[in-house]
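Re: that chain you flagged

S.,

Sorry for the slow reply, it's been a week of failed gels. I finally had a moment to sit down with the sequence you sent. For the record, here it is as I used it:
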Amino acid sequence: MISSKLKSDQIDISIVIVNYKVKEYIANLLNSIYKAKKAYTLQIIVVDNNSEDNSIAYLRERYPEVIYIENKENVGFGKANNQGFDIATGKYTLVINPDTLVSEDTLECMMDYMEKHPSCGASGCKILNPDGTYAPESKRSVPTIGTAISKVFGLNYLFPKHKILGSYYLGWIDEDEIAEIPVLSGCFMFWRTSVLHQLNGFDERFFMYGEDIDLCYRIQETDFHIAYVPTTSIIHYKGESTRKGDLKYVKIFNKALYQFFDKHHSSNYSHLFRGVIFTAITLRAIFAFFANNLRLIGLIATDLVLLNISVILGFLIRFQFSLEVITNLQNLKHLWINVLASVLYVAIGSAIDLFRTQRSSISNQLKAVVGSFLAIAVVTFFVRDLAFSRLALLYGLAISIILMIGLRLIQINFSKSTTKVTGRIKRSKLLLVGDYSETEPLKKQIYAHPDWNYEVVGTVGIKEQHAKQVGVLPQLRDYVRAYKVDQVFFLLKCISYKAMLEQLSILQNERVIVKLIPDSMDFILGKSNVEYLEKIPLIDVGLEYSKGINQWLKRATELFLASLGLLVLSPVVLPAILFSKAKKRKISEITFYESITTHKWKNRFLLLWNVLIGNLHIVGAPLSDKKQNSLNYKQGITGLRQINESRISDDEDARNYELFYLQQYSIWMDFDILMKSMLSKFSALQYIEEQSSH
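Prediction finished late last night. Pasting the structure tokens below so you have them in one place:
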């Protein structure tokens, strides 16, 4: 319970922030608060709900002046805030989520409004999504049966301006109109501390969600009202300490809805009607769970459709699309194979976390497909009554790999958000917004990460044009369109929050992902992820590359590919080699015809021959006259370092790329590097010629 008596009026604003495993977002929020501080005196209180990620130590080192409360368990949002309210001594108390960002004028605008309107007990501002779009929860009404029905059936989206159907988000009130409203969003609530204490803070029976609605509802018992003040705005990343697709989130959220109804409205209705309400909220929870996971469900459904098509096509190919086979209804009995394949795929995929995220790995998908068909083959072998053509299964496996892996590669390469390298040929085009003196070293830091797939297309300056910048801030949208940019990074060290928010509003229809780099310049903050700019700690121990099974798989794969390549090239290239009088030279003990790129087909043949006899890898260390391989692994035709040479700025970066390859090695990484070498502008022979001439 919070104290009912203010201890001091010396502080202008007390700010209470509850943390649960989002320390980087809080650091960014605190930076923005200090920029908005102006002449106000602040008391900042961070309550940690047992994050278990070293949050307090991380924050205390950077912001020692902040008051920290460490809970030994997750006591919930409401109770944790009350702990902060209990020691708040400011005239006003700002309740703010950690995954928000305030503008330079936010505190000033809120203070100014509250000072001029003494009957206003609490106020909120305009809330923007990370892409700059307006968040409708900036202003809300109290949930009722009518608003709940309207929201569940989407009527509030179809008729946003209607005073009944659009009442949940008060759609008839313009987003830029100051107005009295019933409910504020819990992510930003600017309270008179006296009113907050008068209401005794949040009801701690609400663990998370619903407590903000309850607190706003109870202000009706006082002489104060709530105001929506859109003269300033904040960014809200929305639930970075929770995941809306999780069943746990759905249960907590909908439990809170019923708690609110039961607390404030149950006395007005019969037990039967309360049962109807409970049933409706339960159905809404089920609907919400599927809606929040719709994309993931769609991916799984697509996989299953392609898998079943592959099984059927494998059967038809095996019997040469015979009309007799197709029209024979007896063959419908084999549809059990489709059911079994689907069940096995989902079971194996779940076991190896294929469906844990919407960006599942290609290697895990391949394992699930191969595992499913192998399991079917075993079942049909031992259960004679279920006998099925092994050749049809083999055809089905090949088709499913082509269709499913092909589709996943397309999805990865057309996604703007994916930055990991595996399976992605197209790099994410990136614009840096900030002063050139800051963006140039940042570019080197980005390129030093072997596991990132960014391509910096240029820097946009804040005010003054630099010779090496593509332009200045007012034309940012034009540059995004001209360069077909996927992501924009704002360096908050160089740009004001207000200017950045203005640009977000301008970019909101450009389908570009915006990320922020705080003043500390040590991490990149996105909507749902944090990427650290410090280099990955790689040490030369326990290398995956050195494991016997990986070495065996690598050699077996390269023998197959080299043999296949030599078999294809031999009829055309071998006669040219036998009768060639061109000069030869050796690079790292490998013989080439001069010049290397002029005799490209003969030199490709020689490279494959050296792979076959064990002198080279297909994927390995760089090959040149100079000894560059400090890690002592065999040289290769291509490799992770070779295809990223333009991103490497010094010997340390070069070693980092090579060590990353050795430490993170898998046969899938080799396939990924080989695929990128073949489908990108990289030329192995040209690279070898250029490196050997240095």
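What I noticed first: Residues 3-8, 240-245 have pLDDT under 50 and may be disordered.

Talk soon,
D.
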